């Protein structure tokens, strides 16, 4: 399993995305799947950087592994911020006109729609969100 640990700051986003892209490219990932994984990682990292450590600094860890036939990528996003399970968030009502929708919630909605599997756990003071996706669709 490959791992990247960075300060949970928005300035680190390009570094995080380069790490993920490099791993996916090395595995011969389809471009459409790569885009979906990259968007999901971006969304979760931005949420960690924006909300996990209010008024203080903290770290974010991204762990990736690609296994199996057919290949499946697993991305674990970890932080030691406020315990928060984004999967308990009520899905937004996307049938409403944009001006009538509540603010927020679209990012995790997109992640739910594009990943094959999502799970959350709080373990040893870490929020751990695990995302899995088949690499070739």
Question: Can you give a write-up of this model?
Answer:
It is a single chain. The protein has 3 helices and 5 strands. It is of the alpha+beta class and 137 residues long. Strand 4 and strand 5 (126-134) form a beta hairpin. It is globular and about 40 Å long.
Provide keyphrases for this structure.
137 residues; 28% strand
Q: Which segments are poorly predicted (pLDDT under 50) over 5 or more consecutive residues? A: none
> What sequence of helices (H) and strands (E) makes up the elements?
EHHEEHEE
Number of strands: 5
Strand order of the largest sheet: 1-2-3-5-4
| Number of continuous helical runs | 3
Please report which band the strand proportion falls in: under 5%, 5-15%, 15-25%, 25-35%, 35-45% or over 45%.
25-35%
Q: What is the average of the pLDDT values? A: 90
Q: Percentage of helical residues? A: 25-40%
Distance between the amino and carboxyl termini: 22 Å
Shape summary: globular
Tell me about the biggest sheet?
5 strands, antiparallel
Which structural class do you get from the secondary structure elements? Answer: alpha+beta
Whole-number radius of gyration? 15 Å
């Amino acid at each position: 399993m490959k791992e990247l640990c960075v300060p949970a700051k928005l300035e680190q986003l390009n570094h995080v995305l380069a790490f993920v892209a490099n791993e996916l490219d090395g595995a011969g990932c389809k471009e459409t799947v790569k885009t979906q994984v990259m968007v999901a990682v971006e969304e979760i990292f931005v949420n960690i950087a924006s909300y996990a450590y209010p008024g203080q600094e903290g770290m974010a860890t991204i762990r990736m592994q690609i296994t199996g036939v057919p290949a499946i990528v697993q991305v674990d996003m970890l932080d030691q911020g406020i315990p928060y399970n984004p999967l308990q968030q009520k899905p937004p009502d996307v049938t409403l006109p944009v001006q009538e929708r509540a603010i927020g919630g679209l990012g995790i909605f997109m992640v739910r729609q594009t990943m094959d599997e999502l799970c959350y756990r709080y373990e040893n003071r870490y929020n751990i969100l695990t995302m899995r996706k088949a690499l070739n669709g």
